[in-house]
Amino acid sequence: MSQALERHWYRLTPVSLLLAPLSLLFCLLAVLRRQLYRYRLLPAVQLPVPVIVVGNITVGGTGKTPLVIWLAELLRAHGYRPGIVTRGYRGRSRHWPREVSADTPADEVGDEPVLLARRAGAPVVAGPDRVTDARRLLAQGCNVIISDDGLQHYRLRRDIEIAVLDGSRRLGNGLCLPAGPLREPAARLGQVDLRVTNGAPQAGELGMQLDPQRFCRLTDSAMCAGTDVFAGRPVHAVAGIGNPQRFFATLRDLGLEVVPHAFPDHHGFGPQDLEFGDDMPVIVTEKDAVKCRRFGRPHHWVLAVAARPDPRLATEILKLLKERFGGQETA
Questions:
Q1: Is residue 328 predicted with pLDDT exceeding 60?
Q2: Which of 79, 143, 265, 307 is geometrically suited to a Cys-Cys bond with 330, CB 3.0 to 4.6 A?
Q3: Which residues, at least 6 apart from 8, have a Cβ–Cβ distance to it below 8 Å?
Q4: What is the dihedral of CA 87, 88, 94, 96, to 10 degrees?
């Protein structure tokens, strides 16, 4: 159902207008829920360490995961011991919370937690109760908690909010679910500490780019090549992310002749999804790779990317930590 509706989320159509009353109800309930937490009519938990939320107000990918990885690296470089809590969306684990490692099966905890465990260099705990997850990280000695995709998870009080926007799709038609892509009204962006735009920023926003780093073989992450290795060659590009077109455009910018294959976000990949009856290279996203590695073949590759935000973002985050928790800008 959501896939069918998504076609109507980025423009006004008869379908989105028909659903507008439900959209208004969704927005009102989202605002009411936030106010109940704000005025402590619903209980929320304040941790003894800073909590930094990285999220968005839209459904679908905006580049949050690469930014979380960058943020963990920034905090470590300044002496902090960050830990990451994440929902574990579509994970089928029989028990929660789960401490996630690079080898944890993605079908048990979800794809993004495994990618974070592999790339962020910080402990990762996945589960539906972020307070319980965060407390487990505190027991491991973490002194800053990063809440991945946690903007709407108000039970865990936050000290810094970072909202990530898609620079090309922005807020779609501006309507809340189900008529549009918004989880909360657009005015919510005016209440966060920092707005980061994956692409060209507008007023009051800081820009971010996702820089291609290298191609690595799906079956052997140690076997990598430069981003020009496939230049001028036709490739199959496979993406099961929120905005697959951005991935395809990145490959085209690298000079590849892209045959695109888009799948729904968080798609449960099988071997058949990476086979196209020829020997052309098949390139997948890092998020999809964690689900495809077990059946990868030598002609399957992964494009590694890294977030490159405006340098002012690091300055602002460290400044907020200093202002709100005292001490120096290094832990």
A1: no
A2: 79
A3: 15, 16, 19, 173, 179
A4: -40
Going by C-alpha positions, the residue among 169, 175, 180 that lies closest to residue 2 is 180
CATH no. for 2-201+319-325: 3.40.50
Q: Kindly report the length of the chain.
A: 331
**Residue 146 to residue 83: CA distance in whole angstroms:** 6
Cβ proximity of 314 and 135 under 8 Å: no
Task: State the pLDDT at residue 331.
Answer: 44
Measured CA to CA, the distance from residue 40 to residue 53 in angstroms comes to: 19
Distance of alpha carbon 317 from the chain centroid: 18
Question: Does position 263 have pLDDT exceeding 50, yes or no?
Answer: yes
Q: Which two tokens stand for residue 187?
A: 């005015």
Q: What DSSP string describes 99-165? A: EE-TTS-HHHH-HHHHHHHHHS-S-EEE-S-HHHHHHHHHHTT-SEEEEET-TT-TTB--SEEEEEE
C-alpha span between 278 and 75 (Å, rounded): 45
In Å, how far from its chain's centre is CA 207? Answer: 16
pLDDT in tens, 201-252: 999 999 999 999 999 999 998 999 999 999 999 999 999 998 899 999 999 9
Contacts 24+ apart (CB under 8 A), 197-204: 197/164, 197/165, 197/166, 197/167, 198/62, 198/63, 198/164, 198/165, 198/166, 198/167, 198/246, 199/166, 199/167, 199/168, 200/167, 201/167, 201/310
Structure-token pair, residue 252: 């085209």
Beta bridge pairs of residue 164: 196
Q: Which two tokens stand for residue 157?
A: 């009080």
Per-residue pLDDT band at 7 (split at 50, 70, 90): confident
Mean pLDDT rounded to a whole number for the chain: 94
Among 38, 54, 272, smallest CA distance to 157 is for: 38
The structural domains of the chain, with segments of one domain joined by +, span: 2-201+319-325, 211-308
Q: How many CA atoms lie within 13 A of 171 on its CB side?
A: 14
Pairing of strands 98-100, 124-126: antiparallel
Q: 245 vs 179, 229, 232, 250, 260, CA distance in Å?
A: 22, 21, 19, 9, 9
